[in-house]
Write a structure and sequence with these properties.
This protein is an alpha+beta fold and 199 residues long. It has 3 helices and 6 strands; from the N terminus they run H-H-H-E-E-E-E-E-E.
Length: 199
């Protein structure tokens, strides 16, 4: 009889060991998803659902993993939009800088027209030179390049004083004469108007 009792005790111990293994498979928070569980405390899936790649939640599932995917997608979209805007701005700035650089190289030719009008005495030749100069200035104006007004009071934001005059019959600080024309492009000074100012 003792032998049989020993066998009965052995049979009763086996289920207890099996139950212990079953408990180990369950995570500390009571989730039953197994060792690859990705639930966490923020899981809002329906009771009994698993928050993993095999998730079968309905369209209203608000599990943590799907939230992360959406956040990553929105962040990536925002980063791409910012990148596109930066590239458009950089391209626009490069075009503007290139245009301004070309105009700066072109200005000495316009200065030559100014000097020519001061030296030519023949009326017909002078009229032809001024006509060509006006055509060039009109074209530049259509492209956004404008002449700086070099009359009235000296303005350091638009004018550069290259000399002073004490004999002119104007108030001190007034522009006496323009030596070289100044230009702006979309409000930005390409070249300051170089002037003589009454001291």
């Amino acid at each position: 009889m003792k032998k049989n009792k020993s066998n009965e005790n052995h049979i009763e111990d086996e289920p207890q060991e099996k139950d212990k293994n079953k408990i180990d498979d369950i995570s500390p928070d009571g989730c039953g998803c197994g060792e690859n569980c990705d639930c966490g405390d923020d899981c809002k899936c329906a009771e009994g659902e698993k928050c993993n790649d095999d998730c079968t939640c309905d369209e209203n599932c608000d599990c943590k993993k799907e939230k992360n995917y959406l956040d990553d997608l929105l962040r990536l979209q925002a980063e791409f939009d910012n990148y596109r805007k930066r590239m458009q701005s950089a391209l626009s700035d490069a075009r503007q800088d290139g245009f301004i650089d070309a105009i700066e190289k072109f200005l000495p030719a316009l200065d030559s027209f100014k000097m020519a009008t001061d030296m030519i005495t023949d009326k017909n030749t002078l009229m032809g030179i001024k006509f060509i100069e006006k055509g060039i200035l009109d074209t530049l104006n259509k492209m956004g390049v404008e002449e700086i007004d070099a009359t009235g009071e000296f303005n350091p934001e638009l004018h550069q004083a290259i000399d002073t005059d004490t004999t002119a019959d104007v108030a001190p600080g007034m522009i006496v004469k323009e030596a070289y024309k100044g230009f702006t492009y979309k409000g930005k000074v390409i070249r300051y108007s170089q002037v003589i100012v009454k001291r």
